[in-house]
Amino acid sequence: MSQVFNGLALGILLALIAAGLTIIYGTLGLINFAHGALFVVGAYAGFSAYVATESFVLSIVAGALAAMAVGLVLERGLIRRFYGRPVEDQILVTFGISIVVVEIIRGIYGGVGQRVPVPSWGEGVVDMGFVTYPLYRIEILVIAAVALGLCWLVLYRTRLGLIVRSGIEDALMVRLLGINIQRAFLVVFGVGAAAAGFAGMIYAPIVSIVPDMGFRVLIQSFVVVVLGGVGSFPGAVLGGLVAGQILSLTSLFNPVYSDVMLFAAMALILIVRPQGFLGVEGRA
């Protein structure tokens, strides 16, 4: 049961990261390999804010805002020029951006791992009768679930969300209706970047913060996107929860094979249902 809860905590974090990733890809048609670097930006920005203020809440806000700011600068300065380019160009430029951002962070903070302590309101354990579990990991479930809920409200209950979802289905028709879709897409990119930074900071007390921590998270998030379906927000949530359980329960028996089982699940989905759990056939 402890591993099941670990899987839920990891899965909802992956869902939060993958939600931004899948919306960016579904809306902009961009394969963003810099998304993992934004996760790292959020973690380190939050760490710096915590050192300065000793407030975990302010650190979370700082991590999300820093990742959003970096994401918007990258989008306006370089990435927007590659929206209509071949997929290979997008992969190369975003992967190159990721390396540059990570090395800048390494130059500022060094390669030694940093630690963010668990906040005072997250210390201790909870006895649920059938399992004793760390309080902060339960709070992560709640925090990430609330963040995903807010993203859902924006996507499905606001005018911006309507434009974004319409852009995913038919960007040309949205432009013909006179809507400034590029401005909406900029907001989408910023929100996706903020989600990655937010996840990076709330994950920081669980692991050691290192500059390369974003690469594995990025790969796992792409698997989540494939499992859930490209461009599908509910699919990202479902895919994240499934991926979290696969990684956690496999680690219970042999941690070496956790990633192997995750990629095996992805391969099976691509064979049986290429559009993913909740994706639409032909969208990718």
UniProtKB/TrEMBL annotation:
UniProt family annotation: Belongs to the binding-protein-dependent transport system permease family. LivHM subfamily.
Protein name as annotated: Branched-chain amino acid ABC transporter permease
Keywords: Amino-acid transport, Cell membrane, Membrane, Transmembrane, Transmembrane helix, Transport
Subcellular location per the Swiss-Prot or TrEMBL entry: Cell membrane
Annotated TM spans: 6-26, 33-51, 57-79, 91-109, 135-156, 184-206, 218-244, 256-273
Protein's membrane topology: Multi-pass membrane protein
Source species, domain of life: Bacteria
CDD domains registered for this protein in UniProt: TM_PBP1_LivH_like (cd06582)
